[in-house]
Amino acid sequence: MAKSTGRARARGTRGDVMEVWQTPKQSWPVLIIGALIRWRVEILVTVVAVVVILWLNNTVGTVWTLVCLAVVLLIVAVWPGLRRFVVYRVWCVLDRHRIRTCLRNAKFRTMNLDGALPFMLWARPTKTGERVWLWTRAGSSPDELDNVLSHVASACFAREARVHHVRKMTTVVAFEIIRRDPLEKSGPVESPLAKLSAKVHGRVQDPEGVTPLTAVNVTQLHPTPVAVTEATDTNSGKSEKPGKSRKNTSTNVTPERPAVVVGGEDLSDYID
Asked: What is the fold of 95-181?
């Protein structure tokens, strides 16, 4: 009797309780529509590629079809802008699948009790990586996604992952996948403010940091001397007492530094 009581007490004091829920049962039409939505990019690219290859094969033959495909791949590999466009789009498609797999297999709860995961809306490339927008289902909170940021970054092969909440609608959240830092480039970083200020004055100038500063025309402005006068007694009716002399007050004026003007701009505040 004591043994069974001890086992019951041990089971009651255990704290490692695991929450288990089942995947919701869905009909075949819903599963097919969901698969088409998730794999829409791959299906579209495959269909277009097959149609183009068959059309070229029937028009110019197999050899010229292979030549055309090789030329297209060479252009994508050589042209930097087109290559970046293709690579960024591939990362967007890959992030959607990796985030879905991570949310389904993470040890933290990211779905509701019915087992429904957040719905992937779309993914767009950014200067630092990608941004994936999600629609949280009823019964789940956007704050639960903060617990899986490190898992999402590891799943997407990124250096960091952040989550942004939309103030107008908490149902919509965005995963910010940080993959690169534009400030780590060895070359100068162009600023759009220089181009904007140049257009305001009606002339086009080179961006800031691109053209080196070779010569400077410095114009020194000499300060105007300040006259120091003694304080006078304006009250003519009052006379000074004998034995006491009036103190002469003077104002200590610190001479101003000459202004340094470069290209029409005063740079005195930036020079010690």
From this structure: Threonyl-tRNA Synthetase; Chain A, domain 2 (3.30.980)
